[in-house]
Specification:
signal, seven-stranded mixed sheet, Carb_Esterase_6, SASA, SGNH_hydro_sf, about 15% strand
Length: about 270
Amino acid sequence: MANNGLKLTILSLFIITYEYWSSHVQVVDFTGPTHIVKDVFILAGQSNMAGRGGVIDKSWDGIIPPEVKPRPGKILRLGANMRWVDAHEPLHADIDVNKTCGVGPGMAFANAVLRGDPRRFRVVGLVPCAIGGSGIGEWSRGGRLYQGLITRAAAAVEGGGEIRAVLWFQGERDTLNISDAELYKERLRKFVIDLRSDLMSPLLPVIQVALASGEGPYIETVRKAQHEINLPNVITVDAKGLLLQPDGLHLSTHAQVQVGKMLALAMLQSHCAS
């Protein structure tokens, strides 16, 4: 009888202890997307990075090419709420909130990287930061867009992972006047240097897209600046000649797929990927 009483006492203590801890301790799911080690890529720039593929008259057609299809558990995105979720287009829907977003280069890039080197890149984490209509001056250190990028980049690596590269597609806004166009090279150079410093990654790869279009007449001035940027681990792919939407400014869905593949090829072929 004494043994039975002791057993009941121990059982009661166990139940009380379990109920206390279950109500006071948060159980962390280390198998969830937050705690998966990820190869992180920052997506920054303006509307052609945010994605306007398939957007006509402020409405997205919803067409998803095979190269852009989601891969649950393999391609993740950091939402505006700083939580990782399975990625799908439009990647920037909760980031570039004042515009209608469609297909950008991000998903095509991620799929191509995973296919191109599945042993090296196992889970891709995309961090959308692009804002339509933004000039490069708005991405300078201390500004809202720059600080937002830094904050999101820091959140992206908290649960495990490493920032592999920044994908940059911007400059259309800076074609509007000659002053901004002529200052573009130095502003871009400073942006890259500051970003690497603040992310504590002095040779962080930056893969940029040379313009296919612009909002003003100084497209070639900005393109020249993009091609002449002289910094290590800055790689340029060229979107010139790719199919544009009827607005003559934004890339079509097919063109965005091509840009994503070009960005992926640049990443895979460079020593930065090793």
